[in-house]
Fold:
Amino acid sequence: MNVLIIGGTGVISTGIVKHLLVRGANVTVYNRNQSPRRFEGDVRQIVGDRRDAEAFERQMSGARYDVVIDMIAFQPEAVESAVRAFGGKCVQYIFCSTVCTYGVKVPGTVLVDETFALEPISGYGRNKVECEKRVLDAHALGAFAGTIIRPSSTYGPGGTLIDNLESNPVAWDRIEKGLPILCAGDGLALHLMTHRDDVGKMFAYAALNPKTYGQAYNAARDRHWTWREQLTETAFVLGRRAKVIFMPAEWICASGGGRFGLLKEIMQYHVAFSSEKAKRDVPEFRCEIDYRAGATDTLDELRRGGKWRACENDTVYQSLIDKALSIGVDAVEL
Structure:
């Protein structure tokens, strides 16, 4: 099986490459060669920038792959370029989308499955919906078999470990130093975290699986937990107890000067998804990485790579803590 990954060095891509190599696939990655590889094995590299559509399509003009996995298409124009580049030249095109395509409504069953309406509230989600439409249109026209995979919050070495407020938080440094942190609402909104290697299985084993042709899938672990649980588990990894100040999301966003966009757009809401369809059609997709082990590896690499976010000079975050304490809100130890 010859596979091209457009991207190939990101967090999820690392997990995909790992499992493709286990399958014995011949893997080629296409990217700007500006990020280090985080996998071992014989992987071919093509250097280029897919944002330059003309140059990208010219580079791919003679290419023939069984599967193309597109990890870095964020605008519909990028998918249109991929259709021109690979239409009639590959068996399957797997598009990395996002659960942000669903928006923030909660179904009566609580868990969002693939039948739920796509009503995104962010520009990122809306663009991904348009990308998905282009993939399915190309599938219907016979350009290739299109498959859509929607990951949720993904973590692992090479990436960050989000909290309730932001993608690379100072919260972990504050917990380690015994300082209070913020969490929106009562901390009981549902969420889930999936390790990159588990998400990577879904992409790698969906490859050339006819059941996935023309289909869309959520790719997330089964364990849904509250933000209280996530903060408690991460604090355990750091050898501490989390001291948490619970404040309304609206207050945090308004007081943060536009900083906490992740909280405003999605993390203040329930984000709970069903991946039963993915497990049905791709039986190899099972999430097995223990959160404590995965979080330990992720945080350790942040330190080694100099990307650990220290809290000492974060005056914005500290000012919110001080404001909350000044109006009589106490920190709760989890």
Q: What stands out?
A: The chain has a mean pLDDT of 94.
